[in-house]
Amino acid sequence: MSNSDEIIFLYEKYGFELEDNQNPEKYLVFSYRKGYFQNAEILLIDLDFDFHNLEAEYKASGFAVKINKYSSLDEIHSQLFSGFFLPPNNCKKLRQEYECYARKQTEKIGFCEYKFIPCRFVDDNNESRRNLIEYIYQRLFENGPQLIIVEAAAGFGKTSISYELIKELSADSKGTVPIITELSKNRTASIFKYVLLTEIDSKFSNLSSELVTYEIKQGKVPLIIDGFDELLSKSHDDVPSDLSDSDEKTAQTMLSTIAQLLDENSHAKIVLTSRKSSIFAGELFEEWSDKHLPHCQITRIQIIPPVVSDWLDESKIKLLRSRGIVFDDISNPTLLTFLSSQSNEDIASKFTSVDSILQQYFKILLKREQERQSLTLKVDEQLSLMESVAGTMASFKQSTCTSSEIKDIIRMSLGENILEYLDRYSDFSKEDVPTEDEFLQKLSHHALLDRIPNTSNSIGFINDFIFGYLISEALTNNRLPDLSPKEIEEKYWNLMVTSYGICSQKKRDALYRIITDNKIEFTPYEELHTDLALLHKTSHEYIRCYYESVYFGENVSLTSSNFKDCVFSCCTFNSCSISSDAFEDCKFYGCHFYEVEIIPANNQKNCNLIFSNCCGESELRKISCKEPILSSVNTETEYEKKVLEQYWRPGSDHADRRRLFSTLFKGYAQQDYDGISEAIDRLYGKEILLHKSNCIELNFEKMSEIREILGR
User: Helix or strand or coil: residue 259?
Assistant: First the structure.
């Protein structure tokens, strides 16, 4: 494509028509007609060209004429983008959107002003205390297509991270205009492609979706997609089993839409936030990303539990410790925000357990609600009502409702009690007595409910933690006797398990009994999550499972023979107790072990454990109990060759970029596993292999060394 062809292509993308191409070495003329107005732009290629006669000719034809001097294609692109996308104006709107979000958070918290507390995260096998927002921001301005996936448990700040990133981008946009969309707030469309098009039309109503999509792919319109998992009814069931399929159904899936934006020539920058989901883990995702995103830089970030000392001062920490409260149990943003607002005297006198913290949280919030809205419902009555509302929404498979829908659910949950509650207004002056509809309107504006901004008339709960807790309370307190637990989707079970995981053993056991009595089926990841959260130990056998970025905390006990032939990638074992025979034939890649307690087994088995790129694993290595087996390979180089051949198969004309750790052992005998693991570590040291989130990348910059080892 010649230079003039590229200029014409760019102008036509922006809706201009080519008027004069007779002397492209001197000038080009484009027209832009919109309604009553006719505009012409004379682009001077030769800056010495005398354009005055040409200008007069177009003015005489009724055009408003603009003279533009060509400097470079990038400069022309920037001018067009600025003129049509208006970065200062749009960034001002985004700042207002952020301020609205922050203000609503302050209102929802009720105890203190909203403030974003920096969170710990894991990226590329390293736990980081760097500023997460700055880290993502920097990635968004790196060359090439960027896909950044931020995963966190329910209620751990995914939406706050999205808005903090918007705040950063709108303050210093570098000529970009980001889009943020909250998928949990849009239940009118079930296909991500159409949700995205709706968002584009909403944000840029005067521009075509084709132009906006073009600039997304140019990297000038970064996409921030909050709650990517919200359109999945289950953690992986809505994703086709064969992600490489090109049929119509696959083309409409979320990942296919993402892949179209991140093709080989793209410079798109996309941030997805999601709860931890198998959609992004394991071989399926790696195979799909290898095929569809070979040129894209994929960054996986896992948010890990908050550090209590980041939220509370030392005096409060000492008081909580003296009350016997385990810090793993309060490592939740909602609880820590509440505790930070409480006086030392209140902490010393009122809090004896996490349950008591939650009770006080609701008590203060709901008493204030009685005064704020002149509600006649007592604290326990409000709580019972909200439990029923949450359970009903989960049974309807809804995270948000319209205003009329939420009032219908509240009316149904109140039943005949609504008459009693209305009778209580008899002591009020006549003008202050609400009608039934006004009473329902009050309750639809309850402090535990959230009127969603930028979404037409939509209402949900204030955060996923509260939503999950209230669903659990509804289920364990039998608020919905007609609801079968089997009717609840896995997404809502995840919210429930995560929220109830901080509660007393009595509450946790009650929810676990419902799960087991009703034979609720989970994916292997959700099954382990449920065991760790509710039992603080493992109760199942896990065979040939893949676990990534799982946190095994100080309350957790891993007992005998739980895991067989499993792979653990980038997992953290922090102050937990581990039976010396808990793992059998397992592989650990990029895992961290902190002060773990090894419990000797009565009859120690041969564990045959493999470690690569781990730290703190020495105690587990000691009890690996491997029998000496003669290796089938004699030299270190031969093992390195075996590893590299998994990337560059003999007879293939090219090497693949990414591989999962577990796949590097495929096709080899058990006696070779140690040699392969050590070869992987050596190749790390030579920077021939690079750790990238949940996979291992081949460093193409070391191709000469790779060829030498492979003998090619």
Answer: helix
